[in-house]
Design a protein that fits this description.
4 strands; about 60% helix; Alpha-Beta Plaits; 10 helices; elongated
């Protein structure tokens, strides 16, 4: 368990470093904006610098923006997930102060593409290890647990606000390059982690009761159990069907591995669900 936590923290810190590199070496010097709270922090920092006598760095603003979200996540999502998110945001803030703020290229398209790719690799691996970069990830987790509503809508609204504000303040060319960054980062995150908000796990196991208790202790999700029989061994088993969000996939994988490492699990995309998406 300790080894797993060390690996997880290492991945989270590495993801934060990649995010800081993407921002300070590519996106910020080119006035191209990232997605989510990071983009909001970039935009707010630029506006404060140009239109007020004050200046607050992107890293500090990112930390401030995530404080109320972290408090919400602590009570509504879970202490472990939120703690790793706080580590990610704090590490990003530190690395933004360490990595020099300079442009590696004068080509805005190169900055937009490489900045988006590098940031997305860090975000993708962080999500893959069951953590997040804070901000909208925690908001998505809260919404997914409160009601079955597509969180992509909220991502779209916030990112649209970033693009429109950047366009009105600094020219529509900057806004279009920001759109390129958002598209590239989304595609890379999909490749590293998963593009689907909800996933269905079908687990064939001989330890159904133990596995069910372990899952319910960690995840607020309903489980359907169907009797099954091995086609080769003729052993009696159970087929467990559970729908989870992409943020819960790591926890589910660890639970299955700990309780029944011999279980056969098939993960498939879920395009839509009807009924209650929670455990009563």
């Amino acid at each position: 368990m300790i080894g797993l936590q060390v690996k997880k923290i290492t991945v989270v810190i590495f993801g934060a470093l990649l995010n800081a590199i993407a921002l300070n070496l590519f996106l910020i010097p080119a006035d191209v904006y990232a997605s989510g709270f990071t983009g909001i922090a970039q935009l707010a920092s630029r506006v404060l610098e140009e239109y007020t006598p004050f200046y607050i760095s992107t890293g500090i603003l990112l930390l401030f923006l995530n404080i109320p979200v972290a408090i919400l996540g602590w009570y509504k999502v879970g202490k472990s997930f939120t703690l790793y998110s706080i580590i990610s945001v704090a590490a990003t803030t530190v690395f933004l102060g360490i990595v020099p703020l300079q442009a590696l290229s004068d080509d805005i398209l190169l900055n937009a593409v490489f900045g988006g790719v590098i940031a997305a690799i860090g975000i993708g691996f962080t999500l893959k290890w069951g953590a997040s970069t804070g901000g909208l990830d925690i908001v998505a987790m809260v919404l997914s647990r409160l009601r079955d509503r597509p969180v992509g809508t909220y991502f779209f609204v916030l990112n649209s606000f970033i693009i429109l504000t950047a366009g009105m303040l600094y020219g529509w060319e900057k806004a279009l390059y920001t759109l390129v960054t958002l598209y590239v980062s989304t595609r890379v995150i999909d490749a590293v982690h998963t593009r689907h908000e909800k996933l269905t796990a079908m687990i064939v196991t001989s330890q159904a009761e133990k596995l069910k208790k372990a899952i319910h202790a960690k995840l607020v999700r309903g489980i359907t159990t169907v009797p099954a029989k091995g086609g080769f061994t003729n052993d009696n088993k159970d087929l467990m069907i559970i729908v989870v969000t992409r943020y819960e996939l790591f926890d589910l994988e660890r639970i299955i591995k700990d309780v029944d490492p011999y279980a056969f699990t098939n993960i498939v995309q879920t395009t839509g669900i009807f009924g209650f998406f929670r455990k009563d």
